[in-house]
Each structure stands twice: as C-alpha cells, then as structure tokens.
Model the fold of this input.
Amino acid sequence: MAGATEVKICGLSTPEAVAAAIEGGADYIGFVFYPRSPRHVTPQQAALLAKAVPASVKIVALTVDATDDLLGEIVEEVHPALLQLHGVETPARVTEIRQRYGVPVMKVLPVAGPADIAAAHAYEDGADRLMFDAKPPKEKKDALPGGNALSFDWQLLAGTEWKKPWLLAGGLRPENVAEAIRISGAPGVDVSSGVEEAPGRKSTALIKAFLKAAKAG
Ligand SMILES: O=C(O)c1ccccc1NCC(=O)[C@H](O)[C@H](O)COP(=O)(O)O
Done:
C-alpha cells in the first residue's frame, strides 16, 4: 500500500458501523474480544458481522492476554486476517501465538515516552505488524488497555525505522488524523473512540469523515 495510508476502524459491533467502514474505504475492521470493553463482541456475534465483509477488507481480532482456548475459538469462528495483541504479551508469546494459529499478529506497544519506543524493537522479529498506542492513564485504576481516546507525542515516532509495517493509534479523530500522520510519518492509523457518539456507540458519519481525512492525509 505504498503511498496510501492504511486505516483500521476498531471496535465495531453493529452491521451499520461495519457497512460504513467498508463503504468509506477501511483497510481493516477490528472486533474487540474483551468483556470489560463497551465494544466487546462474542466470537459468534463477530462471525455474523464478518459475513458482510469483503475479502479486500481485513478482519482484525483484538484480544488482551487471551488464553489459547479463546484465541482458538476466535480463529475458528471469525477467520481473522490478523490477531491484534493488546495485552502484556511477551515477544516469546507473540511468536508462539503466530506459530500456533498460523495467523499474522500485530503487537500493540503502549507509549508514553522515548523508552517505550525503544522497547518496541524487541517485537520487530516476532510480529507481522506493530501498533503504537497511548499508554492507559495510570491514575485510572480500571482503565482499559486501549480505546481510551488518549494521544501521545506523535513526534516520538517521527523518523523512526521499523522492520515491519506499523499503525499509529490513540486519540485520533477526523480533525487531527491528517496532522498525526504528517508529524509521526505513520503508514497506517487506527481509531475507536474518535468515531463514536458514546463509548461503544459508533457514528457512521464520523467513521466516513475519519476515513476521508486519513486517506487524504
Ligand atoms: O477499544 C477498546 O475497548 C479496547 C479494549 C481493550 C483493549 C484495547 C481496546 N482498543 C484497542 C484499539 O485498537 C483502539 O482502537 C486503540 O486503542 C485507539 O483507541 P482510541 O484512542 O479510542 O481511538
């Protein structure tokens, strides 16, 4: 996809939101398998939603330190193109998951400062893709590992080089995504809260506006 920014719309849970992402030109759509999330879907619900997704749009299954049983069920029911690992999975666990299920993996790295960017290099060999997302707020004890509408300093990624394709996430919205791409140099972006009317409730208009702004950016 040289030249065009890849876009992932995450946390979809209705046929309307899935249709808006496809119509708007999303490259990836994400389903969240994490019961604490307002965007959580079961593998069976995701499998139904996935029926409307053309092969040109990749389905991403997002899990957080998932057990092998859950990963196996998701792979069997949903047939994702990518497993997004959003927990504290080690490089060894990332490699193990990739080998066990034969599905490419995207490891998410939480970022608050330069040390987090440096630490991400440990995942370059084992993961197929990387995603840099804002670190959850420390002061909020029950904060989710992602989907917090928080951004980090995009400049931290400017000029960095990676062996694998990567996405920028965290606090992106239709109004700021072009600037985020320009500053960070991100080849891909991901959004959840920035295309919602309320936590877990996606706006079809915001999904389309985000895609338009990111693809133009
Ligand atoms: O979105 C969630 O509810 C979620 C829950 C647990 C782990 C990860 C989660 N989301 C991960 C994503 O890929 C989000 O799109 C990413 O964190 C950006 O979120 P936002 O800042 O809300 O756009």
